Amino acid sequence: MSGIYVHVPFCRTACHYCDFHFSTSLSRVESYVKALLKEIELRQESGEWDGLVFDTLYFGGGTPSVLSSDDLKLIVEGINRAFRGSSGFSSEFIESTIEVNPEDVNEESLRGWRAAGFNRLSIGVQSFHDSQLSWMNRKHSGKEAFRAVELASRAGFHRISLDLIYGLPESDGDWQKTVEMALSLPIDHISCYALTIEPKTVLGARIKSGVEIEMPDERLEKDYAIICDEMRKAGFDHYEVSNWAKGVKSRAVHNSSYWSGAPYLGLGAGAHGFRSNIRYSVISNNPLYISAIEAKKLPDTEETLSNKDRCNEVLMTGLRTAKGVDFKALEKTWGYNPAKLNPKEWKSRIEAGDIVQTKAGEETAFRIPENKWLIGDSIATDFFVT
């Protein structure tokens, strides 16, 4: 199953923790949309994506909800003409997601998103506490976030995911209350991430200068344990280290395809794509992106992945999921079985409970258990083929 990702690199304000590619200047939005429409044509004309069936669509950023509904509709129509063989909207995709900020959610915008074909919203809530939102330089309030979800549900969006951040400065019990408030809303999915310190951000500079302090690991572990417990009580399925769904049908199909190693088409400045063992990244510079596309050039940087690279990627992403990794299939597909290559480390990790069988009877499929997912990257990299 393959998907299409569209990067919208614009935000009204810069969150202090974010290092994704974006611009707070909206002056180039019109020219960017025109360039994006042209990029869609160039990708289709290249023939490199012929034969692939695209089942999912995802608009991320940045903040895709800063675009007008008319612009979003134009982009989706262009994608459908080029890659779906139809001028219909993205209702043809089994899942079509747009990331939105609470301050952009109103009755008019919701009608526009539905008219453009989106059937799933990912709402960037992060927190329901105004002091934390101000500290992050978020534009919305906790009440606005709460109301945004209620409005979306009443407008007919039955698939709503919330983004939350743990490890924030807080008074006692704030995180517990945030999780409880999220679960009181009509949602079917939560993505939850630890606050990370990136050097080229406002927060990174503040940490470096001593104005802020980094949260200790113990605090992150405590917050993670809280959401794991609360989501379990609420009947949500913890299917990936940072993602919970209210049943299998509520899992993010688009993201699950990433983790399975499926091909995906990336569009827009700062986007990434993957096909036939080639991973590419589009230039993360809006003016240079626009000028390159106007000159009918795709501003990509490409990397050809070896079998070792693919094996390591499957390990890194697969062990972070409840489905896990089938090591027999790994060896059959890529020629390497990390358990055989490093039997001493494998035995040690098994005995320590760092790696467990996914299900009884599935002797070759393994995963990292939930209580070890916070250190999952270090466990996975121990078995990288070098």
Can you give keywords for this protein?
386 residues, alpha/beta, TIM Barrel, Arc Repressor Mutant, subunit A, 2 domains, 9-stranded mixed beta sheet, 3-stranded antiparallel beta sheet, 15 strands, 40% helix, 19% strand, globular
Which band does the percent of strand residues land in?
A: 15-25%
Helix content: 25-40%
Largest sheet: 9 strands, mixed
CATH topology of the largest domain: TIM Barrel
CATH domain class name of the largest domain: Alpha Beta
Tell me, briefly, the overall form: globular
Q: Classify the secondary structure makeup into a structural class.
A: alpha/beta
User: In which order are the strands of the major sheet placed?
Assistant: 7-8-6-5-4-3-2-1-9
Report the uncertain regions: 86-91
Mean of all residue-level pLDDT scores: 93
Please write the string of helix (H) and strand (E) elements.
EHEHEHEHHEHEHHEEHEEEHEHEHHHEEH
- The tally of domains stands at 2
Q: Helix count, per DSSP?
A: 15
Q: What gyration radius follows from the Cα positions, in whole Å?
A: 21 Å
Can you count the beta strands? 15
Task: Examine the secondary-structure arrangement and name the CATH architecture of the largest domain.
Answer: Alpha-Beta Barrel
- What's the end-to-end separation, in Å? 29 Å
State the fourth-level CATH superfamily of the largest domain: Aldolase class I
